[in-house]
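Re: that backbone. Tokens:
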């Protein structure tokens, strides 16, 4: 098999892995078998991507899996939460205001844990790059630091945000990381 075919197979495996995990996590009780199948499929995608194109293949597969997860999260954010649906059925005289609130809450969670967390992670990565350049590091090292920081910082920050129960705390973390990173960029003359 040539490298291009292997990358396409790995990308398909990555999308399938995300789909299986989304299916599992969408059930009332998560399925251990589906969880294992999803993670094994994602791991297989990384192995195939690595064998096809080394670190570049892994990076491409991580991007494909991240995009697939973002699409799955966007669709999930558009659906009302199960609690809101059950409440709406019991209190039908109130109309659909509970669903609207649940949908809005889902979109707010998606925006905070998705794009806003990405922006904060990117600002953090650029601040690390600025520190590397200011301390005499090579530009290539700074660029690699950005490419290494974002894929690690974004999911860790997203996970932390999703575990928080208060919006104010979520926003404070995003704003704090972004402000600290932006101030480092401004103090050091911005990204070179």
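Recovered sequence:
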């Amino acid at each position: 098999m040539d490298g291009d075919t292997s990358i396409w197979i790995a990308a398909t495996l990555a999308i399938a892995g995300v789909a299986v995990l989304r299916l599992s996590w969408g059930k009332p009780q998560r399925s251990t078998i589906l969880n294992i199948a999803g993670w094994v499929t994602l791991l297989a995608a990384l192995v195939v991507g690595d064998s096809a194109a080394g670190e570049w293949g892994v990076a491409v597969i991580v991007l494909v899996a991240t995009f697939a997860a973002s699409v799955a999260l966007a669709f999930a954010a558009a659906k009302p939460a199960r609690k809101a649906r059950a409440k709406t059925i019991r209190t039908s005289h109130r109309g659909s205001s509970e669903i609207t609130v649940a949908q809005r809450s889902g979109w707010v969670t998606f925006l905070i844990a998705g794009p806003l967390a990405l922006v904060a992670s990117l600002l953090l990565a650029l601040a690390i790059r600025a520190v590397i350049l200011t301390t005499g590091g090579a530009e290539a090292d700074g660029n690699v630091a950005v490419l290494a920081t974002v894929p690690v910082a974004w999911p860790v920050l997203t996970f932390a945000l999703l575990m928080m129960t208060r919006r104010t705390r979520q926003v404070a973390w995003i704003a704090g990381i972004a402000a600290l990173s932006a101030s480092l960029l401004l103090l050091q003359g911005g990204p070179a």
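DSSP finds six helices and no strands in the chain. The chain has two domains: 3-78, 102-188.
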